[in-house]
Design a protein that fits this description.
Elements: E1 2-8, E2 11-21, E3 24-32, E4 38-45, E5 48-54, E6 56-58, E7 61-69, E8 76-82, E9 100-101, E10 118-122, E11 125-132, E12 148-152, E13 155-163, E14 166-168, H1 181-191
Parallel strand pairs: 1-8
Antiparallel strand pairs: 1-2, 2-3, 3-7, 4-5, 4-8, 6-7, 9-10, 10-11, 11-13, 12-13, 13-14
C-alpha cells in the first residue's frame, strides 16, 4: 500500500492511502472531523487537479473511499474546506471561509492597512483578499494590476496571489504577463459567462 499526506493549506491533517489491483486503484483518505465544515478531497496527479468527492464522518474521522482507473498516480491530496452550501469565490479555488486573518509581511503596505487582509493557501500559492471600496483610497493600490475585484455580501475585496515570493494575478496561468486591472475584470466577467 502506498500513501501520501492529506493537506489543508500547508498543514498535513491526515493521510491518503492507495493500492492497485488489476485495472483499478482504490484510495482511502482519513482525517479528524471538523464540525460544521464540508471537506472535499482533491487529488493532484501529474499537475492536474482531480476532485474525488466529499468526506463523510465515520467514528470521529472524516473518510473517503474511491476507486479509480489504475492509470491514476496520486502525488498529493488536498482538502477543499467550506461551510455547508458555500461555494468558491469567483475565480478562486477556495471558499471565503477558508481565508484567515493575514499579516502584511512581505507586502508593500503599512502594517495598519493590513487590518482586514485575509489569506489562504492552495497548492503552491497563497491567495490574498484585501478590503476594497471603489472610489476610496487603498493601501493596496500597488497591487491593482495583479488584482481581481470580488464583491460580496460582506463587502469588496481585491484578490491576488503569491508564489515563491512573487506576486501575480489570480489568473496568471490564463492571461499574458502584462495585464491591467480593467483587463482582469473584463476577463473575469467572461469566464463567469457574462458578456
Amino acid at each position: 500500500m502506498e500513501e501520501c499526506g492529506l493537506y489543508l493549506g500547508k498543514n498535513e491533517i491526515g493521510r491518503l492511502r492507495w493500492s492497485r489491483s488489476g485495472e483499478t486503484t482504490t484510495l482511502f483518505a482519513a482525517c479528524p472531523v471538523e464540525k460544521g465544515r464540508i471537506y472535499r478531497v482533491v487529488l493532484l496527479c501529474e499537475g492536474e487537479q482531480l476532485p474525488l468527492g466529499v468526506m463523510l464522518p465515520d467514528g470521529g474521522k472524516f473518510v473517503l473511499k474511491k476507486t479509480l482507473p489504475r492509470t491514476v498516480v496520486p502525488q498529493r491530496a488536498l482538502v477543499d474546506r467550506s461551510l455547508p452550501g458555500e461555494g468558491h469565490l469567483p475565480g478562486l479555488p477556495l471558499a471565503y471561509s477558508a481565508f484567515q486573518q493575514a499579516e502584511a509581511k512581505g507586502l508593500k503596505v503599512p502594517e495598519a492597512a493590513a487590518k482586514g487582509l485575509l489569506c489562504a493557501d492552495w497548492i503552491d500559492r497563497r491567495y490574498y483578499l484585501a478590503p476594497f471600496c471603489p472610489g476610496e483610497e487603498s493601501a493596496f493600490a500597488s497591487y491593482f494590476s495583479l488584482s481581481v475585484l470580488i464583491e460580496g455580501e460582506t463587502g469588496g475585496f481585491l484578490a491576488f496571489c503569491e508564489k515563491d515570493g512573487n506576486f501575480e494575478p489570480v489568473f496568471s496561468k490564463l492571461l499574458p504577463k502584462q495585464t491591467d486591472f480593467a483587463e482582469l475584470t473584463e476577463y473575469h466577467g467572461r469566464e463567469e459567462g457574462s458578456t
